[in-house]
Q: What sequence folds into this?
């Protein structure tokens, strides 16, 4: 009953119906225009120089300098001097760092003939000896974006379902981060929950380089479906400072995260069919216990000021944060506290790590959510909705989001059928 579906899809296959054409147009406008590098210059000769078999890779080790590397490989100090004084770009070679990669090519005389150094994901510095003199140039490798769709149904845990759907762990984290204000990914995930994702895969020189952004996603948790679309209000793909919005155009971001800790430390070894941490809850109880491995990072649930960061024999290492509107959040039993009293903290900032200091039988985070002195359930407390996009933007957002949401709907229907099987 591997209820998982994964469809690879090249952008071109979207053409056909009118909705799909809109989708294609929208994406072409918004996501496929990657920054141009005006310094790029291509020639047939450059391409020949880039035959990979002729390049020797060198990874810079700790404590290694370029002159050390040259010495080791038998290249002269004079050559190095000529190269790094060529121009501004070549001078960057003087500041190579451990872990960086260089590629070197020898001539028939076994001396250095060319050197290649990646300055960024898309730009390589090429220094080459032609007609007896060294010259440098920048070579650009444009990135290519393809869209991919995936959906899955959770049987054991989210990471396993993501993997079965062809998603990397990093993509699963991105997916969870989009819905982290609505869903508690530590305690509320159940078998039968499902998700759909439309996301980018980025290729360089025809080879897969990395995953890009999630453009749209849905998550159905215990029968409730959340949907989200990535949208950049200024529409500028170079700055890429967009955000995730609900279909109504409200930001997904809210004042408080549902679960104030990094769920990836927990969920990968958690099977909702066999066992659920909530069953192990200690009562009577004013808060929620998140059983988690020692050292799991704990986040500030919302922006605020640390009003207490201390140790006592009951709470162990504990931190209290004061938020706007009379709300205080409390975090107990840390191994380590990472903030001081009086410090301002941002939502998602690490304030400590899970431990078992104080009165605790095993490593867990005890979390309390207090509104005007009254304990509330942080997982069900109603939080104010974010404001929608301004009217002028809203129309643009809806035009952009409509084809993505339609595609998401189709994926959802597929995953729903699979969930029933
Ligand atoms: Zn507790």
A:
């Amino acid at each position: 009953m591997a209820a998982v579906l994964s469809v690879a899809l090249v952008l071109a296959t979207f053409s056909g119906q009118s909705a799909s054409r809109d989708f294609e147009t929208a994406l072409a406008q918004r996501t496929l225009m990657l920054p141009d590098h005006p310094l790029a210059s291509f020639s047939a000769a450059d391409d020949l120089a880039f035959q990979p078999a002729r390049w020797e890779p060198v990874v810079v080790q700790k404590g290694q300098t370029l002159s050390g590397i040259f010495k080791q490989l038998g290249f002269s100090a004079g050559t190095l001097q000529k190269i790094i004084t060529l121009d501004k770009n070549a001078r960057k070679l003087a500041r190579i760092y451990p872990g960086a990669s260089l590629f070197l090519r020898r001539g028939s005389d076994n001396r250095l003939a060319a050197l290649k150094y990646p300055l960024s994901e898309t730009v390589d510095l090429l220094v080459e000896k032609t007609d007896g003199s060294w010259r440098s140039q920048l070579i650009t490798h444009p990135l290519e974006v393809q869209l991919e769709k995936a959906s899955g149904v959770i049987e054991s845990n989210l990471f396993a379902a993501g993997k079965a759907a062809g998603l990397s762990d990093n993509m699963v984290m991105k997916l969870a981060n989009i819905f982290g204000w609505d869903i508690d990914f530590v305690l509320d995930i159940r078998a039968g929950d499902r998700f759909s994702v439309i996301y980018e895969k980025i290729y360089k020189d025809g080879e897969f380089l990395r995953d890009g952004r999630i453009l749209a996603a849905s998550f159905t948790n215990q029968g409730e479906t959340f949907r989200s679309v990535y949208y950049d209000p200024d529409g500028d793909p170079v700055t890429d400072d967009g955000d995730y919005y609900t279909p109504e155009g409200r930001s997904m971001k809210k004042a408080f995260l549902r679960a104030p800790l990094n769920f990836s430390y927990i969920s990968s070894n958690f099977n909702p069919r066999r066992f659920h941490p909530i069953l192990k809850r200690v009562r009577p109880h004013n808060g929620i216990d998140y059983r988690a491995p020692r050292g799991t990072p704990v986040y500030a649930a919302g922006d605020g000021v640390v009003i207490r960061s201390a140790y006592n024999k009951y709470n162990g290492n504990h931190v209290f944060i004061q938020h706007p509107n009379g709300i205080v959040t409390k975090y107990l039993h840390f191994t380590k506290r990472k903030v001081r009293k009086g410090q301002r903290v941002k939502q998602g900032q690490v304030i400590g790590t899970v431990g078992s200091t104080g009165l605790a039988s095993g490593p867990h985070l005890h979390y309390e959510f207090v509104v005007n002195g009254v304990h509330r359930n942080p997982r069900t407390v109603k939080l104010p909705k974010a404001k929608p996009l301004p009217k002028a933007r809203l129309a643009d957002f809806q035009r952009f989001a409509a084809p993505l949401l339609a595609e998401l709907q189709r994926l959802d229907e597929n995953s729903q059928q699979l969930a029933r099987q």
In short: The radius of gyration is 26 Å. Confidence is low (pLDDT under 50) at residues 1-53, 268-283. The domain at 4-32+145-254+388-420 is CATH 3.10.450.350 (Nuclear Transport Factor 2; Chain: A,). The chain has three domains: 4-32+145-254+388-420, 44-140, 264-376.
